[in-house]
Structures are given as structure tokens and as C-alpha cells.
Amino acid sequence: MPSSVIRRFAYDPSRRALDIEFVSGRRYRYAAVPAPIVAAFRKAVSKGRFFNSRIRDRFAFVELEPAPGDGDGA
After folding, report:
1. Number of domains in the chain
2. CB proximity list for 71: less than 8 A, separation 6 or greater
3. Is residue 49 part of a domain?
4. Per-residue pLDDT, 73
């Protein structure tokens, strides 16, 4: 089911890094996210609700640069 908050996400299991792009275009990388959390996130009916309850404010994060072509005039 598409999310009204989260556009896409990707997980790098070797680094345990979860990248999330929101529909606003803002992108964040969450560190040290265990694979079982990501597996549950993939299965969640509401990605936004899962994110708010199980990821947000629980893992360190950094904001990433906007993806190329996302409103940068290119």
C-alpha cells in the first residue's frame, strides 16, 4: 500500500543504514537499524505509522542532500 508520507526507502544491511525519502523530498539516513525492524517496516500496512512508532526518535539520523532532479531546477 502506498504511503501518504513516505515516498521510498532503501536498506543497506552491511551498514545497517536505512534511507528514507519523504513525499516532501527530504531524505534521511537512520543508523544502526536492525534488519528485523526493516523487515517489519516493509510489511507494515501503514509505513508512516510504523515509522513514527518504531523508527523516528529511536535511531540516530542525518539529513541527506535532495535526490537529483527533485526541485533543484535541473
Report:
1. 1
2. 25
3. yes
4. 46
